[in-house]
Each structure stands twice: as C-alpha cells, then as structure tokens.
Write a structure and sequence with these properties.
Among the domains are: 18-81, MutS, DNA mismatch repair protein, domain I; 176-232, DNA polymerase, domain 1 (Orthogonal Bundle), CATH 1.10.150; 251-394, DNA polymerase, Y-family, little finger domain (Dna Ligase, domain 1). Helices cover 42% and strands 21% of the residues. The protein has 16 helices and 13 strands. The chain has a 5-stranded mixed β-sheet with strand order 5-6-1-7-8. Strands 9, 10, 11, 12 and 13 form a 5-stranded antiparallel β-sheet that branches. A 3-stranded mixed β-sheet has the order 3-2-4. α5 (82-96) runs antiparallel to α7 (125-140), α12 packs across α13 and α14 (265-286) runs antiparallel to α15 (318-333). The longest helix has 22 residues, at 265-286. The protein is globular.
C-alpha cells in the first residue's frame, strides 16, 4: 500500500483564467464581473483570456472581440500587461519549484511536476498539491487547479475536472475506470478530424476506444491507433522534462493582423520592418542565431501562404535579413488580393552569439551600433529609434 501511495506523484497545475486573475489582483473592482483580456474590437482583436463570469455568455479564448462584445454588452475588456503576467508566472513557478526540481513549464500558466522522492518532505502528492494551492492563494492571491495521478496524461485530464481552482486525485489503478465514461475528445491529441472518424465507427467514449481491437485501430489510424488505445486506458510513460532536459527551441516569430485589409506596400514594409527588428532583438536577447526566415501572408479570402529564405550564414541581425524579407513580400504582393495578416518566423536555430571576422570591419561596426540600439529600445521603447520604413507606425492620428 505504501508503494501504491508513492506511485501517485505527477501533478498537472493550471492557473485559472490567469491573465484575468492577475488583472483582478491589480484591480479588485474587476472581481465578480465578466472580464476579458485582449485587443480592441476596432482593431480585430481577439479574446486572450476570459473570466468564468464571461464564459457563462459563451465567450472563450480566440473568439473575435467584436463577437464577445455582442454576446455580453456589459463585458469589461482590458488590453493586457504581458510583462506583468510574465512576472506573476515566474513568481508562481519559483514557488512551486520549492517542492521539486523536476518541473516542466509548458506555458505561462501551466506546468507538470514530478514529486517522486519528496514524500519524506511533503507527504503524499495529493497533500503536497493542496499545500501548493493554499500557498499560491495566500502569497500571490492566484487560484491554482491541480490534477494528481501517477502519469502526466491522466493528471492533465484530471485537472480539467477540477476547474475552477480545485484538486482532482486519480488513485493508482483507477485510471481506466476514470477514463472509461469520458468522451474521446478529452484525450489530448484527439482533434476534430480523428474524433469524427472515431464517431463513424461508433467509438464515442474512451472506454469503447480502450477495448477496440488494436489491429482494427492500426488499419484505420496507422501506428497511432494502438497508441490511442493505450492512452485511452490511462497509460502514459512520457516523463516530466525540466527545462534543462528539454529539446532546444525550434523557432521564434510573431505575426500581426491588420485593423483593415491592405495592399499598401508602405504599410506592409513598415510592419515587416517592425517585426524583423523585434524578433531579431529577441534572438539576440536569448542567444540564438537563425538559418531560415519564413514570411507568412494571410489574404482577405483567408488563403495563407508561407515562403522561406536562407542566408549563407546563421544570423540574428535584422538588416541582414531585410533584403531577403522584402523580396518575399514583393512576391506576396503580386497576388492582387488585400492582405489581412503578416508574420515572420525564424527557424534552424542554434546557440551562439555573432562574432565578426578579422577583416569584417563594417559588420563589426554595424554590430556595435546594434548593441546600442537594443539598449536604447529596451530603456525607451521600440519607437525610440526605428528604421524609416516603420515610422508610420508611430505617427499621431
């Protein structure tokens, strides 16, 4: 019995309506009212987070803000303070890191913890989880939802049943019984297409999926079929992987949706320049060099195209990517359709900082200027010094 108790050691923690919760800590008058964080409807903003009061009106994340406002006319929108959210997230996970070094942060408000070996310090995993919830609430005034089981898959599903700000514990050996009545859509990895295909074969719940013949699932879904069956029984051997044991980042990028669809080359070049400067600054700040840049264009008819370009050498310098980026944009403009969204993404990342050669005096001088620009923008804002192509972004209306 003691062994079974200690086997239940993986936690999935989730900060409830995190962005809204942080805003309520900063402004208690928002408590108990329907609140969303996101961009303005006039600029085609979307809902980044919604309070539980707002969700009662059918509002959810990724919903267009204009639609959210129609569903709830007295909805309160706040634009968001992402630096503050990052600080709050760090405070929470620093606190949780005091319970175990095996903590895998998967987003700003979500993480897995492996508590094996900590029983002599904090007791059973479920007791440690309750202590975490209480400590986060008392010290940071934020609500934490926790799922507890002996693997990360079951803990992830369990935390969904614990919302809002609750705790759900699945004891060892009870995983198949817990999963059996649940619809297949709750299993991470099963999207709408797979769900529809399963429904066509009258496989609607995890209990049915768990008892379906493996050969049949492999015939229909390929090698993923038997894997789905094992997961439907609550089996998962994926370890909790801390940051120091995780694979390196694959890409860094950003994208922007325009308030109005446009084909104006000046506007598009200005936005492209801004995104290049900001994303390359992030590459430098995090110590990455990139080999490939992708330009993403979404047109007014929602057709989306992505074009790639590579430099002869990895770089984190926006001026070195600029000409290639402009060439990709020119190709995009040949399609006589208004553009709705523009994005850039760097991939082929490798660790390292740029180092000039012995005879690359001009590049070394450029690099020195770039270091100064980074410091100025960090201190005074992105608009402090900017290229001519992006000046229109900061003009007063």
């Amino acid at each position: 019995m003691r062994h079974a108790e200690s086997a239940c050691s993986v936690l999935h923690v989730d900060l409830d309506a995190f962005f809204v919760s942080v805003e309520r800590v900063l402004n208690p008058r928002l408590c108990g009212r329907p609140v969303v964080v996101g961009g303005a409807a006039a600029t085609r903003g979307v809902v980044a987070a919604a309070s539980y009061e707002a969700r009662q009106y059918g509002i959810h994340s990724a919903m267009p803000m204009a639609q959210a406002m129609r569903l709830c006319p007295h909805l309160i929108r706040v634009p968001g303070q992402h630096k503050m959210y990052a600080r709050a997230s760090k405070a929470v996970f620093d606190l949780l890191g005091g319970y175990t070094p095996v903590l895998e942060k998967v987003s700003v408000d979500e993480a897995y913890l492996d508590l094996r070996g900590t029983e002599h310090l904090f007791g059973r995993a479920v007791d440690a989880a309750e202590r975490m919830r209480r400590e986060v609430k008392e010290r940071l005034r934020l609500d934490l939802t926790v799922g507890v089981s002996r693997n990360r898959l079951v803990s992830k599903v369990a935390s969904g049943f614990a919302k809002p700000h609750g705790l759900f514990d699945v004891r060892p050996g009870q995983e198949p019984r817990f999963f059996a009545p649940l619809p297949v859509k709750v299993l991470p990895g099963i999207g709408p297409v797979t769900q529809k295909k399963l429904r066509d074969f009258h496989i609607d719940d995890l209990g049915t999926l768990a008892t379906t013949e493996s050969w049949f699932l492999q015939e229909v879904f390929g090698r993923y079929g038997p894997i789905m069956k094992r997961r439907a029984r609550g089996e998962d051997a994926t370890p909790v992987c801390p940051a120091w044991g995780k694979p390196v980042r694959k890409s860094i990028g950003q994208e922007r949706t325009f308030a109005e669809d446009t084909h104006d080359a000046v506007v598009l070049r200005g936005r492209l320049q801004a995104m290049l400067e900001e994303t390359c600054a992030r590459l430098r700040r995090e110590g990455w060099l990139a080999r490939t840049m992708s330009l993403k264009v979404r047109y007014a008819d929602f057709t989306t195209e992505t074009r790639d370009v590579r430099l002869p050498h990895p770089s984190d310098h926006d001026l070195e990517w600029w000409q290639a980026a402009c060439a990709l944009l020119e190709k995009a403009l040949r399609r006589r359709t208004l553009i709705r969204l523009l994005g850039v993404r760097f991939s082929g990342l490798q660790r390292g900082f740029w180092q000039g050669g012995l005879f690359e005096e001009e590049r070394i001088a450029q690099r020195s200027r770039l270091t100064v620009l980074d410091r100025m923008r960090e201190k005074y804002g992105a608009q402090a010094v900017c290229a001519g192509d992006r000046l229109w972004l900061y003009k007063s209306p």
